[in-house]
Amino acid sequence: MTHPAQIEGLFAGRQSATIEAARGPRVTVLLADAHPVARRRVRSTLERAGGFVIVGEATTAAETFAETAWHRPDVLVVDPHEFGHLDVADMIGHVFRIAPGTRVLVVTSVDDDASVRSALHAGARGYLVAADADADQVLRGVQVVANGEVIVGRSVAGRLPALFGPLGGHVPYPFPQLTAREQQVLERIAAGKSNLAIARDLALAPKTISNRVSAVLGKLGVTDRAQAIVLARDAGLGRG
Q: The Response regulatory domain covers which part of the protein (predicted)?
């Protein structure tokens, strides 16, 4: 005969499994940075948010490659500039050879043009400058990269046209983290248009535009429309 406590334990286990399944699959993350304070900051941010599993930490390039090969994380959060003997592009390229499905988010204090260009050309899905990236933006960065999108920090976004303009004459959109529709919305925000005017332009409901505007602000890492306008105009939008 099954003891009542066993039945209760079995039910609790099934209930826990059901709750866990309802939450959906969690994003696996590997943290790679020579500085323990930087790793601890990202770890605590993700653990507080929930929905992430920190599968490991690395303090050198060799450890990063070994941990990546072993865990094959969804997202590698790395400061490649801390592993000074290795070129940034070479390091990111090696990560992709080891684990093609891993997406790379660079979080670093280095924001010179050559480093940004090198990392993004090598395939990094995000580049955040630590001085500009608070806990919320780091969290947003991991979420965006895990979803297969691209995100760059505010100090980088306005420089993208200058960074990539000379490369074959092709200038990428300055905010690649936005969807095509969100880009259309931002361009109209930068031009000073209201939500109602944007809705008329795009033949969408005002409520839909309101939701799109909120999404744009979140992806740009700004808190209001005025900040979005400044950021967009600095990048050359809304001047036509």
A: 28-145
